[in-house]
Amino acid sequence: MDKFRVMFQFLQSNQESFMNGICGIMALASAQLYSAFEFSCPCMPEYNYTYGIGLLIIPPIWFFLLGFVLNNNVSVLTEEWKRPTGRRMKDPTVLRYMFCSITQRSLIAPAVWVSVTLMDGKSFLCAFSTNLDIEKFGNYSLFMGMSEMEKIRLLARIPCKDLFEHKEIRVAASLYIKCISQACGWVFLLMMTLTAFLIRAIRPCFTQAAFLKTKYWSHYIDIERKMFDETCKEHAKSFAKVCIHQYFENISGEMRSFPPPSDEDKLLGIRAQDDMNKVLWNWHTCKPPLALRKDQIDGENNGRLNGEANGEKDGHGVPSLVLKTAALPLQRLLFGLWVIVTACHR
Amino acid sequence: MERLKLVLQYFQSNSESISNGICIILALVSVKLYTSFDFNCPCIPQYNKLYSLGVMIVPPIILFFLGVLVNRHTGVMMDEWMRPIGNRSKNPAVVKYLFSAMIQRALLAPMVWILVTLLDGKIFICAFSLSVDPALFSGMPNNTGLDVVKIMAKVPCKEDVIFTNSSFRKAVSRYVRCYSQAVGWSILLFLIVLGALGRLIKPCFDDHATSLQTRYWSNYLDVEQKLFDETCVLHARDFARKCVVQFFEDMREDTILRLPHPPFITKSREELEDEEEERLYGITKQEQVNQLLNKWYYSKPNLDVTRIAHRPRTCKCKCLRPSDGVCTLAVALSKYTG
Questions:
Q1: What keywords are annotated for this sequence in UniProt (chain B) (predicted)?
Q2: How far is Cα B136 from Cα B227, in angstroms, rounded to an integer?
Q3: What's the CA gap between A170 and A303, in Å, rounded?
């Protein structure tokens, strides 16, 4: 249970880990959706191909777009892109990095769906049964007297167990097409893995220093946004408490007590509606520069700048370190493979 | 159990998470309801379509209203919309934001029901088996003496006698199910494209600074309502306790002589009473409470707490003689030290 809590906390600690979690959940959901989905080939020559290939392509597009919709970094990216420069310069490499990372994450669930579909073979069987060269399967005396149209109609019924009477031909043809489908599936997996590997292996050869800078500032933007939202929420709570307190006193006409100092502090000096609106307005139109004043650093330098900003605590030692430094892409890849294998072996 | 607690803790961390959690639970309930629902197509030409459209439309409407009901933000939004202006100006953008958030969350469970219905296909088959052209399929049972319409209406019913060992029914079912799934995936694709466009393009048109303000004030309204309810509950409790204690004391004064209490009991009782009095904020009569609650609705206070911040703090010293010079000095000092 403790390990689970550590994992949960780590996943929540920043947006990127959280998105990794969502990405994993979506990959699982994609495999689960495939197994729950009732695949029913229409078994008619006009519709087989559309149905089979449609089911191979449309759900991945859907999962890809879902990855964009669920990813909060999309909003962060567009805000950073659209904001006025204000007192803080904009860095296009940071935007590019964020876009690439969002796209990479969104590609995992579609890849899982395509792999599972190809490994399972039903969609290929549905799409390509009419293209079969029936002579290969022997005993084609069955097809001797038929016209072209009738032959195609018969072939189109192969994917449907209950509509095609000749079991041996159906089984032989199904196995043949499934075998091709699985080969395509493995080739697809191999290509995706190789591409990911090449990107990860080769990239450090170029611009590693610049990459470190970009990664730092993109994490910073993400964390800053989260901190700002949290500060606003705390402020709203204290503001409401003090406002209600003031209201009660107004009604009674007496000044009897005072609100606790912690609430006053949390107001950070912003006590009126217009001031708060100005704070929020300027946060977007004129972001502050990335330069901390010396007196602030001295005041906060009791170890709060580094560790706790990320929500990481020192007490977890080796497990969290291992999680952090382990090769994330390798983890994602292994996880994806595990999902596919378990889905195929159901 | 602990896992559940962790998940619950995460969702309770703020009001928006709670709403998201409830929304997801409703969606799961909707899926579970569909899988446990015993769907029985009547297989009669006049009633097939009615039954299927009923099953496809009535539960989503119920789920939608349920979603609106259980959402906390509905109450906050209605409050903010209907209240008189009073001392606080109204911001229509906040009401619009709350309304759109509420509608989006309430629409999830109905959409899930409709999509699961379409992807499953049974209801489509029930509704549209009559519209299929039987000439497309071979093997239609024509020795039963029934007309074509009645036969097509019986297609959704597997157990019917006219269809034993017939591949016709299965072929028609597959055909209609294929359409149903295509419609379902198209709707899914349309919705997700809409969502993705909304995410990507909205910041280009929307003023992000204004939306930061709107989000802050809608969260503030929610928090304020919760805190006000909590404060009222606490006030009611202290009011009740004081009222009961006062009653007992009044009763006691009538019957026996009041005996002097030992000094330490008097002191702690006085401290307790002082604390309680503070929590009562000076609201000690029924008319005052009624006036407070009335005014909270008709004339909400201004969003400005500067007065309370710059007011001198009252001294907590237990002066028996308030006109004592030491006490006055202490009050003056506390004004400067805060």
A1: Ion channel, Ion transport, Membrane, Transmembrane, Transmembrane helix, Transport
A2: 67
A3: 70
Which of A43, A61, A243 is the closest to B174 by Cβ? Answer: A43
**What type of residue is A106?**
S
Alpha helix (H) residue ranges in chain B: 2-12, 15-36, 48-70, 72-82, 92-120, 122-128, 148-153, 167-205, 208-255, 263-279, 286-298, 306-309, 325-337
Comparing C-alpha atoms, which of B155, B158, B67 is closest to residue B113?
B67
Over residues B183-230, the pLDDT tens digits come to: 999 999 999 999 888 888 877 777 788 888 999 999 999 999 999 999
Q: What is the largest CA-CA distance in chain A?
A: 104
Alpha carbon distance A196, A211 (integer Å): 17
State the smallest CA–CA distance between residue B329 and chain A in angstroms.
19
Tell me whether residue A239 is in a domain. Answer: no
Contacts of A277 in chain B (CB under 8 A): 213
Short-list A93, A95, A70, CA closest to A83: A95
Q: Which of A212-216, A227-231, A303-307 has the lowest mean pLDDT?
A: A303-307
**ipTM score over 0.85, yes or no:** no
Whether residue A313 lies inside any domain: the answer is no
Whether the model clears a pTM of 0.80, i.e. scores above it, the answer is no
Please choose, from the candidates A40, A175, A34, the residue with its C-alpha nearest in 3D space to the C-alpha of residue A116. Answer: A34
Distance CA B336, CA B338 (A): 6
Contacts of B228 in chain A (CB under 8 A): 240, 244
Cα distance from B17 to chain A (closest Cα, Å)?
Answer: 13
Distances (CA, A) of B273 to A36, A246, B315, B319: 65, 21, 16, 16
Domain total for chain A?
Answer: 1
Which of B166, B205, B212 is the best residue to mutate to test the A interface, defined by the most A CB atoms within 10 Å of its own CB? B212
pLDDT at A58: 93
In a domain, A63, yes or no: yes
